[in-house]
TrEMBL record:
<dbReference type="InterPro" id="IPR002938">
    <property type="entry name" value="FAD-bd"/>
</dbReference>
<comment type="similarity">
    <text>Belongs to the paxM FAD-dependent monooxygenase family.</text>
</comment>
<dbReference type="GO" id="GO:0071949">
    <property type="term" value="F:FAD binding"/>
</dbReference>
<dbReference type="GO" id="GO:0004497">
    <property type="term" value="F:monooxygenase activity"/>
</dbReference>
<keyword id="KW-0503">Monooxygenase</keyword>
<feature type="domain" description="FAD-binding">
    <location>
        <begin position="8"/>
        <end position="341"/>
    </location>
</feature>
<keyword id="KW-0285">Flavoprotein</keyword>
<protein>
    <submittedName>
        <fullName>FAD/NAD(P)-binding domain-containing protein</fullName>
    </submittedName>
</protein>
<dbReference type="InterPro" id="IPR050493">
    <property type="entry name" value="FAD-dep_Monooxygenase_BioMet"/>
</dbReference>
<dbReference type="Pfam" id="PF01494">
    <property type="entry name" value="FAD_binding_3"/>
</dbReference>
<keyword id="KW-0274">FAD</keyword>
<keyword id="KW-0560">Oxidoreductase</keyword>
<dbReference type="InterPro" id="IPR036188">
    <property type="entry name" value="FAD/NAD-bd_sf"/>
</dbReference>
């Protein structure tokens, strides 16, 4: 599906999943869209990232499933999630029915999946993506908005989407102040590495030589998740633990294996075996920061909107951060098209921006909360109760999150939302 040209000029800052999805969806809805990104070249950074069915549904609509076809070989295919108590006691194998091909679950390497989406936007849809273009300022008048690059170049449009991640500059403009992240009291050690040393050890080879596997160990204030990927050829683990140290949001903060091994010394010895196979230089220490929900994602002139992590960072235990960033892009592209189709000329793009926030805000807040509830549910597990009901430690997968169709929803509610906002403005 591609719509007629709407003439709406959209400038997007940031080519992460939020920016790329917003650009692809704006292209589908007929807007003129360009991306400005500070990185100079595409690098495959990061490790494991999760996309729920509510993201799979979005990916699948791009060129009739050709993007999800490319992602499929990069995505984990396991036979369920084996959940253990921290001492090694096996609790339950959590399985799910295979999702339909129209809404797949995709879990894989962030850099590899990002490259698929980036190349699709750039090469197949020919969306202009300006690399090495760091945005240093945003501006907004009655009639237009835009950005100023570090080079001094000024670019104007009808709407700017700040998809510039957790350290967003656009957020400062929207809020009128710099909002500092707080420590969540937790950090994760995370890594991704080749399986060769795991395969060479008879005690760990079984995780890798029978396709993909997914294991979890749960203890007081700590959980350890370990996956094998791409038919067992790669390994990745993420360990969430209490950490009150200075905070940093960088993905490249180096971790120290002896710290991890010390924390796991009373745990199932299998955890130590797995961690010991990690090349030390590939260990990342990522402090999990927290932000109270922002009071608004929209600038005072209603021409600049924040999307993705710039508007709402997520904890990894929600497994929804990238997916919610994608839902933002779908929603805003539809709001802009529906507003452009309206007969009256008044404040079209501004209406679209306000409606976007209205449609998304409460849903995002509720999904964000699941990151805390799942973490706390695991970290405070009542093991006596689990003896009679092992389901208590299953990872929640809720229909209101995964069954959501952001495109259909925005199409259905837009008119009603705009009507409500106008009535509110008249009061
Ligand atoms: C390098 C990197 C590695 C990551 N690895 C993982 C991972 O392993 N697992 C995981 O779950 N999540 C990871 N994330 C975060 C994850 O991608 C996001 O939480 C989620 O996908 C939402 O994406 P986003 O587009 O809102 O933000 P991001 O993915 O952070 O993208 C923001 C983009 O904006 C660009 N940008 C920022 N400021 C400017 C500026 N002034 N001018 C121009 N461009 C700017 C950044 O370079 C970046 O490309 C990573 C993010 C990055 C940037």
């Amino acid at each position: 599906m591609e719509s007629n040209n709407t003439g709406v000029r959209v400038i997007i800052v940031g080519a992460g999943f939020a920016g790329l999805t917003a650009a692809i969806e704006c292209h589908r809805q007929g807007h003129d869209v360009e991306i400005y990104e500070k990185f100079a070249e595409l690098k495959q950074l990061g490790d494991i990232i999760s996309f729920g069915q509510n993201a799979g549904r979005i990916f699948h609509r791009w060129s009739n499933g050709s993007v999800t076809e490319r992602m499929d070989p990069l995505s984990i295919k396991n036979k369920g999630f084996n959940i253990h108590k921290y001492d090694g006691e096996f609790i339950i194998n959590q399985t799910h029915p295979k999702p339909p091909k129209e809404s797949p679950i995709i879990n894989g390497h962030r850099g590899e999946l990002h490259a698929v989406v980036f190349n699709y936007a750039k090469d197949e849809l020919a969306i202009p993506i300006h690399l090495d273009s760091r945005v240093k300022e945003y501006f907004e008048t009655e009639l237009e908005t835009g950005i100023v690059l570090e080079s001094g170049e000024k670019i104007s449009g009808d709407v700017v989407l700040g998809a510039d991640g957790v350290r967003s500059k656009a957020r400062e403009l929207v809020l009128g102040y710099e909002d500092k992240p707080k420590s969540s009291g937790y950090a994760v050690w995370r890594t991704w590495f080749d399986s060769k040393d795991m395969l060479a050890d008879p005690e760990t080879a079984h995780f890798c030589n029978q396709g993909d596997t997914f294991q979890g160990w749960i203890g007081q204030d700590v959980h350890f998740l370990f996956s094998t990927i791409k038919n067992g050829s790669d390994c990745c683990w993420v360990l969430t633990h209490r950490d009150l140290a200075d905070i940093d949001e960088s993905w490249q903060f180096p971790g120290h294996l002896p710290d991890v091994l010390e924390l796991l010394k009373d745990w199932d010895p299998m955890c130590t075996k797995i961690v010991s196979k990690t090349p030390p230089e590939l260990l990342v220490d990522w402090k999990l920061v927290y932000r109270d929900p922002l009071p608004t994602w929209v600038s005072t002139g209603r021409r600049i909107a924040l999307v993705g992590d710039a508007a709402h960072p997520f904890l990894p235990t929600s497994a929804q951060g990238a997916t919610q960033a994608m839902e933002d892009g779908v929603t805003i592209a539809i709001c802009l098209r529906k507003a452009a189709e309206k007969a009256e000329a008044e404040a079209k793009s501004q209406d679209a921006i306000t409606a976007f926030q209205e449609i998304r805000y409460e849903r995002v807040k509720a999904v964000q909360k699941t990151g805390e509830t799942t973490r706390d549910m695991w970290h405070k597990t009542d093991w006596v109760a689990v003896k009679t009901n092992p389901d208590l430690v299953k990872f929640p997968r809720e229909e209101w999150i995964h069954g959501h169709d952001a495109e259909k929803h925005a199409e259905e509610v837009f008119d009603e939302v705009v009507k409500g906002l106008r009535e509110k403005a008249r009061i």
